[in-house]
Specification:
Oligomer: single chain
Strand order of the largest sheet: 5-4-3-2-1-14-15-16
Distance between the termini: 28 Å
Structural class: alpha/beta
Shape: elongated
Amino acid sequence: MPGPVAPHDPAWRGHAAADARPADAPAPDVRLVATDLDGTLLAPDGTVSPRTAAALADAEAAGLDVVFVTARPHRWLTELQAHVAGHGVAICANGASVVDVAGLRVLEEHGMDRARVAALAARLRDAWGADAVHLAVESAEGFAAEHGFVSTHDVPPGSRTAARIEDVLPATTLKVLLQATGRTAEVDAFVAEAQRAVGDLAHVSSSATVPLGEIAAPGVTKAATLAAWAARRGVAPSQVWAVGDAPNDLPMLRWAGRSFAVANALPAVLAAVDATLPSNADDGVAVLLERAAALARARDLRGRG
């Protein structure tokens, strides 16, 4: 098991030069690390590497809060249950739910009712054409989709489908997924066009490299839900380190006291952060967690001194 990364460790210094500070400056008071999953904490094959698993356990032992902040629905967290010990939570669906990972229990929902989802579907069809718009929804109950929506992931057995999403809506939708034919293939432009179409009914983002809209209730973002969760635990933004790789991470990265991107992040994310870590293939988040755990232990030693 690798030891904590010390301030002088080349693995840290070479990839996070923004940590440099005068010798007499106080060490950062990090108490919470918020990390995206896909493309960030998870290896390219979607697994938790041995080093990252060890770093998560060490962060727990050091008293750090580690929060997974992801576009994933909570049903995709099963393989992570072993890595978050007893207190681990995930902010899922881009901020629309807070989940106790150990038990896959939904603690909070910030979703949309049937009327709002039906209204935003109507706006998209009016703007782009009924035959061009293909929708699916994620909820605490599971997945449902229109016949024309093509999922790139395995669809859970028993998932409901219909010609129109309105016919299979749950009581509360956490996230609407949007595909469209005949639209731009550029992701940022696709998101901007979808946002103009739905207006103030919802917030549109994307964590994909292909045009796939992820639509949440107004004001629901990774940053908003993380900020509320941290505040309830008495953690200030200045005490939070956040790391991501995609545009839907940007609100969270801007809110956090220190922001990081893995080296494989998209250019817009790399340009927005305080420092760059090794890629997700090279355990970049493990490097960050090891550093944070070392600082937490040093803080505790000073407090006992």
